[in-house]
Specification:
This protein has 143 residues and is of the alpha+beta class. The protein has one domain. Helices cover 25% and strands 41% of the residues. Strands 1, 2, 3, 4, 5 and 6 form a 6-stranded antiparallel beta sheet that branches. The protein has a 3-stranded antiparallel beta sheet with strand order 7-8-9. β4 and β5 form a beta hairpin. Bound molecules: zinc ion (ZN) (2 copies). The site of one zinc ion has 7 residues, from α2.
Length: 143
C-alpha cells in the first residue's frame, strides 16, 4: 500500500492529483485551505494548512494522506496532531472551542456516539474535522 502526504508545503503541486480524485479547494483563509469532494454522494470537507494556536501561537499542521487501497485511492484527514496538541497543552480548548460528548444515538437507543460540539454556537458533528473546519470558517479560529 502506498501513502502520500499532502501538506501546506506541497499542496500547490498536488492540486492536479486532488482534482483527479474529485477534491477541489473551495476557500483559502490565511495559510489554511478548505477542500471539498465534488460529484460524490456524500460531500466531505478537508483542511490543509497551518493553524495558529490561539494559546501558544505555535503553528500546527493539518494535512491529508492519500492511501492507495485495493478499492481505489482514499483521502484521509489527519487532525491527530492538532487534537493531541489541544488535549495535552490547552485543556481550556474543550470549554472554549470544541467539546467532545459521548451520547446516546437517540432517546430510545443504547447505541452510543461521539459528537464534537462547537462551544460558540452549538454546531455539532460526529466527525472531528468537520467541527474543526467549522470553527476555522465561521469563527476565524487559528487564522
Ligand atoms: Zn498551543
Ligand atoms: Zn460554531
Amino acid at each position: 500500500m502506498c501513502s502520500l502526504k499532502i501538506t501546506y508545503e506541497n499542496l500547490p503541486s498536488m492540486m492536479e492529483l486532488l482534482r483527479n480524485l474529485n477534491v477541489r479547494p473551495i476557500r483559502t483563509i490565511g495559510s489554511v485551505t478548505i477542500l471539498t469532494t465534488v460529484g460524490t454522494p456524500e460531500r466531505r470537507l478537508y483542511v490543509i494548512g497551518k493553524v495558529k494556536c490561539p494559546y501558544c501561537r505555535e503553528h500546527i499542521d493539518l494535512y491529508v494522506v492519500k492511501h492507495d487501497t485495493v478499492s481505489g485511492p482514499r483521502i484521509v484527514q489527519c487532525d491527530g496532531e492538532f487534537k493531541t496538541h489541544m488535549e495535552t497543552k490547552h485543556p481550556e480548548f474543550s470549554k472554549e472551542w470544541i467539546a467532545c460528548r459521548v451520547e446516546s444515538y437517540s432517546r430510545s437507543s443504547f447505541h452510543k456516539v461521539t459528537r464534537y460540539y462547537c462551544q460558540r454556537c452549538g454546531y455539532r458533528s460526529r466527525r472531528y474535522a468537520d467541527t474543526l473546519i467549522h470553527i476555522i470558517q465561521e469563527h476565524g479560529f487559528g487564522t
